[in-house]
Amino acid sequence: MNHIIISEFFMTQLGGIDAYVFPMKVKDLLPIYYVAVRGRDNIEGAVQRVLNKRRIGSIKSFILEGNMFFNSFILNWTDKNYPLTAENGSLKIPRVSSAAQVIDGQHRLEGLKQAVEEKREIGEQAVTVVLVQNLTTSDAARIFLNINTEQKPVPNSLVYDLFGEVRSKDYYIVRAKDLATKLHVDPESPYYQCIKMPGAAQGVGKVDLSTVVNALKQFTTDSGVFAEYHIDDFELQYRIICNYFHVIKHYYEEEGLWLKASNPFMGNSGCYAAIEFLCKDLIPKCAEKKSFEKKTIQNLLPLDEAGLLDRDDLKNKQGKEQRSVVYQYLKSALLKDVPTQDEYKF
Asked: What is the pTM of this model?
């Protein structure tokens, strides 16, 4: 077995876990790592979130501009057939493909991989690695949460994805609030900076945070639509919501109306009704097709065929009536896909 020989390393304990710390060339690191995504990969240590392509592209550009990382990469060696060995003052790492599971640094590693494909000499540079061996999922989650809660913020409901048994009785409200908050702070969101957050200056935001949370929370319970279709991961739930609103935005943006006051989806009633329609009607349809991609949603919702709903269509109506108008508008677009009576077989 061919090995990567690390002559400069030290061994320590971090939170009671044995770890090797050392510099390593990028070209040696890239072939041996892999990413285990929680909710997708049924293996020990799977705690990572789904990769964000935009973030990877940004990291790749950062590296190609001549930068390198000073913070460490944390990996878990999982190949029990070829274990790590330390002897004669050297750490021997078997050259085994996909044997080191990423605990922290997955986006940086993917960015490095793409940068090396364009500029091979980057592979000769060194990064700092913290390497542990055969972690349980619990230990991997503890390290991941330590990094992502103590050092940088992540949604509170991430804890529920990692440790379902510690959920509080109002976990579904926490999840709804985290989803709503990400819609506001994510630059890729159709509602970026459009949700009125607590403490925001008057006039900032178009849809109340409480409206989005109240619309979502009935669907984030154990009996809600996400659980019904086994979509439990926070990032996947967010992606569905984001893709859906991107489709609606597409139609309104073509007319230059998305951020205008005439757009009913930039108001409380329209946004609430849109979320209700998504969860009651659209998610089951997408689940049948096994796709929540924008293209699938756009095919199911040809809003341009019937004309766009305007805020004037909600005039002289109360909140519930307004929500009903928006809901029926979306549902009528979805029902265009339903066969006529003559097309059914009896």
From this structure: 0.57
